[in-house]
Amino acid sequence: MSSWPLSLRLLRFYPKKLGSAVVGWVARRELPRGLRKPLLGRFASAYGIALEEADRSIEDYPSLQAFFTRRLKPGLRPQDAPVPGFVNSPVDARIIAGGPIHGDTILQAKGLPYRVSELLKHLPNPGRFEGGHYLTLYLSPRDYHRIHVPVEGRVQAVARVEGELWPVNDASTTHVPRLYERNRRAAWLAQGTGMAEGLDVAAVCVGATHVGGVILDGRWLEGRALPSDGGFAVNALPCVPGDDLGTFEFGSTVVLLVGGPKGAQWKPLCLEGSVRVGQRLGAFS
Fold first, then answer.
1. Does the annotation count 252 as an active-site position?
2. Is the CB of residue 184 less than 8 Å from the CB of residue 74?
3. Which residue among the candidates 20, 133, 143, 148 is catalytic per the annotation?
4. Which residue has the higher pLDDT, 210 or 140?
5. Can you list the positions of beta strands (E) in 193-284?
6. pTM
7. Contact indicator for 112, 181 with CB cutoff of 8 Å
């Protein structure tokens, strides 16, 4: 820890869960209509948020949380055309890591490995991703914060892990060991069908400091409550790319895993740079 930046060393003493709960409470408070444009407009300007993409005018969002979890105007994020083995981006984000999965291990950053089996805690058979690929997708505060289904398939399981709430910025991913398997997260697992037959795809939605809320869409819960630390099987619910998968309350990270019987045949199209919801991330080689 002596090599950590001062900001990270100080965070060891900050009550991250309590602080995140307080920030979430404040963000959910309803704003007087007359204050919405100046307050939310200042927030949007500070982070470079594209207001013209939002589905409503800024005065119609009752709180900062409602604005942050806004939907986009219909048709702004079309899904790329299907091809054999296609997996599309679930989020607007920046790819910050990616590569093959070997020995239950993937890389958070250069020199910092972590375990797939721990990342996928409470999901069945994490070994299905051995020999596949992973992509780590980072969302900044300016990004659209809804998460969408990346693949045609049937949903097999969902899970939640009650973990810590370290930030997921560049400093943390470079210095904090096993960051994604330590932090609070929700996970979603699907088996590919149609052109994605032979693939298994998991989306792990990782929380962070002041981003305690990672909400899976109620459709995948089948009327059940997701345990604070646990998971359950889902009755093979059909899904298609672009369906609602979940929502981040403020920014964070999605670790996308692609495996299954044909996982070794799947190849990513890019391992860095910005992507948008619906953009094809990879397909069969």
1. yes
2. no
3. 148
4. 140
5. 200-206, 214-216, 230-239, 244-248, 253-259, 266-268, 273-275, 280-284
6. 0.91
7. no
